[in-house]
Design a protein that fits this description.
single chain, three-stranded antiparallel beta sheet, 63% helix, mainly alpha, two-stranded antiparallel sheet
Length: 254
């Protein structure tokens, strides 16, 4: 069956602007065009209904796209694993954008700019964007760096590059987890044993976080020390950097 966009909006119970927004984000395939008229079909309607369901359950649009387009992403019927993902993303508290800005002590406009740059990815719950405790910690840490004198435009540029590389590596790590933990039946459990998979996720995620944090800290310090080598006039900074090379780096995962 063919639908014009207004008819598709009525059938999917979504506003026309939302449909066009999803299409612009690559979540919805382009319609068939006859002259200047766009026609959608039942595949578009089914996909929109899935998007609406996933967004209503709290998935970010980035994760919705992965679920729809990639078989490597855990399916939405894996309820315990989905709950664990949401728990780790949001934590015990969630905030609106205004509440997050107030808690972090930063202008809401700065938070909006960081979100537009892809540095924050809120979860949509009941049609409202919500931020978790990890977002609060990131906002507070970023504000502390800016307060130390980092130029905003250069800081955002570095942060965007880091986010892009991190997302690519995270996708590869998820694929590894999916192949060797979720589907393989390794470590003495049955393949697709939902309870064991969820427990493995809860156990491995903090360890992966610690590994990445330690490695980044060590790399940052070593490269900074290498730049200072032979300078002779930055002894205090060199000592401060060397002092951070400690196995006591704390990485909290709530």
């Amino acid at each position: 069956m063919d639908y014009r966009v207004e008819e598709l909006a009525k059938a999917s119970e979504l506003p026309v602007d939302t449909i066009r927004f999803y299409q612009g984000k690559g979540l919805l395939p382009s319609p068939r065009r006859v002259g200047r008229i766009a026609f959608y079909d039942d595949r578009h309607l089914d996909r929109l209904r899935r998007i609406r369901t996933l967004v209503g359950e709290g998935y970010t649009l980035a994760l919705v796209r992965k679920i729809l387009d990639s078989p490597e992403v855990p399916a939405p019927d894996s309820e315990p694993l989905r709950a664990a993902l949401l728990e780790k993303s949001v934590g015990t508290r969630s905030f609106s954008r205004r509440e997050l800005a107030a808690e972090a002590g930063m202008p809401e406009a700065l938070l909006t700019a960081a979100e537009a740059a892809g540095l924050f990815q809120p979860i949509v719950v009941g049609g409202e964007a919500r931020y978790g405790e990890s977002d609060l910690e990131m906002a507070s840490a970023g504000l502390a760096l800016l307060s130390a004198g980092f130029p905003l435009d250069e800081f955002l540029s570095v942060a965007v590059d880091h986010a892009r590389e991190t997302q690519a590596l995270a996708d590869r790590a998820i694929a590894l987890f999916d192949r060797h933990v979720r589907k393989s039946g390794g470590t003495g459990r049955r393949a697709n044993d939902t309870g064991a998979i969820t427990e493995a996720f809860r156990t491995l995620l903090p360890e992966a976080t610690r590994l990445v944090a330690f490695y980044f800290q060590r790399t940052l310090v070593n490269r900074a020390l290498a730049r200072l080598a032979g300078g002779g006039d930055d002894d205090a900074l060199a000592e401060a950097l060397a002092a951070t090379e400690s196995p006591r780096l704390e990485v909290a995962w709530r």
